[in-house]
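A quick aside before the break. I want you to see a complete sequence-to-structure record at least once, exactly as it would be stored in a machine-readable document. Don't worry about memorizing anything.
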Amino acid sequence: MEEVVGKIWDKWLTRQVSADHPAATVNLCDIRSQLLLFYRAMGGVTAKSIEIAEGQKLKVKRTTLQKVAGSHQKFSLAWQDERSVRLPASLAIFADKDLNEALYFWLVALAAKMPIMTHWLQDNQVATIKLMADYPGLKQSYLKLSRAYLAARPEPDTLSPRDRALEKQIQSALKVPGIVNHLPDGKYQPLPVSLWLYPPLTCLASRPDDKGLEQNNPGQRNLPDIKEIEQRKQVDYVDDERKTDGFMAFQAEALETWTEQVNLDRCQNEDDDNDNLDDIAKDLDIITLSRHRKAKAARIRFDLDLPAAENDDLRLGEGIPLPEWNFKQQRLVENSCFIQTMLADDVKPVPLSQKHQLLSREVSQLFLAIGLNRTRRKAQATGDELDLDAWISEQSRPVKDSSKQNYFIDSRDNFRDVNCLILADLSLSTEGHINNEQKVIDVIRDSLIVFSEALNQLNDEFAIYGFSSVRSQHVRYHILKNFNMRYNDHVRGRISRIEPGYYTRMGAAIRQSSKLLLDRGADNKILLLLTDGRPNDLDQYEGRYGLEDTRQAIIEARQAGLVPYCVTIDQKAHDYLPFLFGHNGFAIVNDATQLPKVLPKIYLNLTKN
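That is the input. The structure line, written in tokens, reads:
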């Protein structure tokens, strides 16, 4: 009975203190793709993504009921940094659902107009004025939003004199943007303004000098998504190198305390700890990170996973230095990373399996129409066969043109002047499962073998490379087949033994592949990237840095005359691939198991002309 009464009391109290309108809720995940397109159309930074803003604690004036309910302590504030635009996970401020949706679009427009914030109050007003002046439609939207929002703000007369002046200034800035330059001091922080952006918060991924903090095998297990959009937390960094932290007290009476050891069997899976950590992290407002001891432990765990030299592929040479694009400096920084070319030297020949034979037969039917079949062109001036139809047609004319004697049939073979380099992403995320029987890496193996059979049938010259990375100084570039190798059982053996590697330093792999393609003599040079995710690595390559560098590498390839094209199974690739490859430079395969059949079709479309 007490539990039932408690639930009823909690439900009633929550309803009393909440000002939201649940029936009109709009979730960010439902309109995220539209907001991203709108943000870019408004001139926002194309490399940025849209993610959930984690709730932040504010010290605001609360009523007695709010204190009893424990509400109005955390607020989801809209903000942005150089990596992403952060918006509330859902909005239910207004009773009208259309207004809640319009608020999302308004915040995105503000973010596009105000990429850098120097003064929270003034910058929001200036950006609002500019948006209303440049876009009449947004002006009408803002006027509706501000009127409805002001009605939901507290009445200034109900506040203390100090807080009353603060609230009046905020409401004045909302009614007539640009007239308020500063806010008076108040005992409490003002209620957040949902129509404005806030300064960037101290977040886990935003500290530029954290080169020692590493992720431990990301992508190896599936973490639960929060409405399919990840959240970031505030972080507090501590320095383990200080020797004077803490205080130790010795209690003499502890010497007289005895206890008996009892062996307890705590049955639990190793994965349970990780799942509990995920749940705990969601509940924490601030995550404390060590900058010394934890980072060293992470490095040790990761290094233990590196194969010993005798078990690793053969390294060819000392490494190839390559530049990387620094988007902050807007220039290529020479010798920023090193490509380590690798070759599996201990390979057993693998014949074409029955499964691959069946897939190859299906694909080969597609290539028959464009293979090296002979074509016959009639009514030609020269040829290897007499065209009687053309001769009779010419002789039957009343007036004959003796200067044109096109009486031959010219038979010739089609010639495909194409070189293709397939670049396969072998990062750790390919360890993930597609279904109960197959992993991503399994589908990549099947696709490469079937695609190679198709290219071999066409007599197109091709090469296959795989890549992964461990920071900038170790970008692993695996030779599966170069242009000079014949496609045979040894090549299939290399493809069959590929395994998930580490991270995805995509820009370096694309630059090295472009160099190899540029050395070829064909007129048509295709760089086909096969991947399952976005660029990332342990260092600053995570986030916008990796996207900008990859995009620059693709631009360089296009300027050199190559045709870069991306085939991915990442269902969230619409967020970043248009920025990297353009709207016609990529394909997303919805069903990863169909990749072996889809990949040759994509290639045919790229080379049909």
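Two observations worth writing down. The radius of gyration is 32 Å. The chain has four domains: 2-175, 204-222+231-239+272-305, 324-366+416-607, 374-413. We'll return to this after the break.
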